[in-house]
Write a sequence for this structure.
């Protein structure tokens, strides 16, 4: 199977970890249910990046929901793309929005939202949300299921 934008898919082939999000290749595959409105969800509970100031690791729980049109994001390439942030220095807001926009630009779905639920840095948790616009009225949108950070209280 080939990706119409980049050639052969990474799926089913040995791959190496991309050194950065810019080097990572996101693959897309045709949506076999393109005539149906539905929500697809990816959850990445162990997303990691680096603080651009201190170089210390930051951790997040990402939830990506989208209503596909003609394309689906291929999950192996998504996993490699998300893992490429492990040595990438950027603020929480930048990481979260960059992931959402990159997927949206590749797929051009009916709708996409991303929730970045970041663990505390300096004692303050930062949650970041981005969506491409209003969701289609005909789809059921489940809650993202990530409770707000409560610490020990």
């Amino acid at each position: 199977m080939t990706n119409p934008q980049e050639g052969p898919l990474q799926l089913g082939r040995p791959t190496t970890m991309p050194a950065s999000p810019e080097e990572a290749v996101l693959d897309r595959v045709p949506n076999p249910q393109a005539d149906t409105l539905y929500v697809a969800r990816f959850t990445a509970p162990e997303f990691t990046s680096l603080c651009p100031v201190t170089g210390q690791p930051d951790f997040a729980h990402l939830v990506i929901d989208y209503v596909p049109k003609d394309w689906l994001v291929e999950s192996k390439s998504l996993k490699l793309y998300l893992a490429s942030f492990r040595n990438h220095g950027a603020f929480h807001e930048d990481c979260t929005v960059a992931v959402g926009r990159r997927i949206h630009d590749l797929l051009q779905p009916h709708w996409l939202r991303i929730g970045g639920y970041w663990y505390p840095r300096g004692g303050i948790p930062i949650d970041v949300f981005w969506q491409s616009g209003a969701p289609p009225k005909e789809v059921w949108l489940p809650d993202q299921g990530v409770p707000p950070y409560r610490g020990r209280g």
In short: The mean pLDDT is 93. The two ends are 51 Å apart (CA to CA).
